[in-house]
């Protein structure tokens, strides 16, 4: 064996397994007839191979069959389930957007509300503190600002307007006006022709305020009614009151999701029953 | 149902069909793992792991010898186990008695229909072959187990080990050469086995 090259051992090994080409096989057989060493090496390899082929086979110690759990199998889902799930998700998203829309409304309003509330407060402060002209210009500025930036609130009739009408006094009207300044248009609309155009109103308003002697009583009287009016309107709205659309969407989400769950649960039951029967 | 039909069903997720394939091949996989790992429990674990990964990967089976494909999964599981064992050396594979002699487990006696003498000889032969296999590098051992113990042809061994046929040929020749030398040491212990193989060889 030692005299046989590894190349020859490789050929002999392949010859034993019938893995040589016909030409190679013929050449090797011719050499085997002539070279005794080669023939002895072949016998040794054949003996080793025969011994290995006699290796006792063990029986499997247990069955290696897979259980559905081991295989991580899940019941095949009916085709309707993904569609129902998708529809449920879409409905849930729509529902979410309706809520988001509701939330965004107050947020955009809330951003302008403090300016509206602050403007009259500073106006009054100026009036009481003895700087009416300055306060008047501030109020006028605020008016101009609010006029150019229309807010959703402009649609609502100002709660202070009726008060101004009831009193009928220019002082009160002027005092009320700053509280309603963000709602210049509605005020003008509801107040009607007597005040002519908003521009007139605004130009008149500082003059009135500047010339009139500030009356703390009136101011105090008008403040509590005017300032809480805007936030009061906001808080009066129930925060989680569902619109019919939202109720419909919610019902759709529950229905679609429930249907998907029910169908997949049913499929799972059938699958488990089949697996048990199969065993 | 024939094997290709069972394979197709298993590829569509039919576990029952796959389990029928398991029953048909589990002994080959277990014995391959046992010869490569030389440990009953680890071989059983590797076999189970191999069937699991085979089920997960069966959709990727594209024809050819299914047995070779399955044996590839078990040799991979064995290689993984050997790598783990290298990192965490374990206790001796056979329990030792007080005199440091290996305790022969009854599980060595594979064939219950054989006479006690035959069973003893089978056990001795198995022990000798396993001892010699353990002396081979893992790659050589896998080749010789697949070719000579499982009876795969060169192309099947090449497919199972993902090696070129030339490599398989060369490794098998080298492994046989070394095994022959190793088994010679057991010649006196296994007279009938050697007599028989000499008769076959002549």
Structural descriptors:
heterodimer, A: 279 residues, mainly alpha, 0% strand, B: 202 residues, Rna Polymerase Sigma Factor, Chain: A, Arc Repressor Mutant, subunit A, globular
Description:
The complex is a heterodimer of chains A (279) and B (202). Chain A has helices spanning 6-16, 22-34, 36-53, 68-71, 80-129, 132-148, 160-167, 170-179, 184-191, 198-211, 216-226, 229-236, 244-278. Chain A has 279 residues and is mainly alpha-helical. In chain A, helix 6 runs antiparallel to helix 10 (198-211), helix 7 packs antiparallel against helix 8 (170-179) and helix 8 crosses helix 11. The longest helix of chain A has 50 residues, at 80-129. The two termini of chain A are 56 Å apart. Residues 108-214 and 216-229 of chain A have low confidence and may be disordered. Chain B is mainly α and 202 residues long. Chain B has two domains: 1-91, Rna Polymerase Sigma Factor, Chain: A (Orthogonal Bundle), CATH 1.10.1740; 94-202, Winged helix-like DNA-binding domain superfamily/Winged helix DNA-binding domain (Arc Repressor Mutant, subunit A, Orthogonal Bundle), CATH 1.10.10. In chain B, helix 6 (138-149) packs across helix 8 (165-184). The longest helix of chain B is centred in the first third of the chain and has 23 residues, at 15-37.
